[in-house]
Every structure is written in C-alpha cells, then in structure tokens.
Amino acid sequence: METPPSLLQRPDPGALSAAQLEQLRKFKIQTRIANEKYLRTHKEVEWLISDFFREIFLKRPDNILEFAADYFTDPRLPSKIHMQLIKDKKVA
To answer: Is residue 51 classed exposed, middle or buried when 0-12, 13-18 and 19+ CB atoms within 10 A define those classes?
Structure first.
C-alpha cells in the first residue's frame, strides 16, 4: 500500500529541527562523558555491578527479579562493598 503524496509533503510536527538534532547529539555526548567520569571515580559502582553479575552466573536463579531485590536489599551489602574497596586499595 502506497502512502498518499499529500502525507509525504506535510512536515512532521513532532520532528526535530536540524538545530535541535545537533543540540540533542551534543547532550548525548556530554551525558556519556559525565557518566564515564562518574563510574571511573566511583569504584564501588563497578564492584557492585561486577559482583551482582558474578552472583547471577554462579547461582543461576530462576527468578532474577526476586534475586536482584534480595541482592540489593541485603543489609550486609554496604559492608561487603566497603571490605572489597579496602582489599582493592591494598592490592593497588
């Protein structure tokens, strides 16, 4: 089914202008840079994500959402992170 020519000629009111697209592109780049800087200065985030995935791969839970909820609400988690950061500091 072909699109009627009249629909192709009308501008899309939801489309971004060239200037808006450029502004969006710059915003995305700045956001990626800021996120990268944040992750590089917060090793606890890297450890938290790595440990979470390691636990998933080792335990292979049937219900990942329940597992994630249990993992991230574990009252021992802050001390595990703290101990790992201390250990990493000693190695470095």
So the answer is: middle
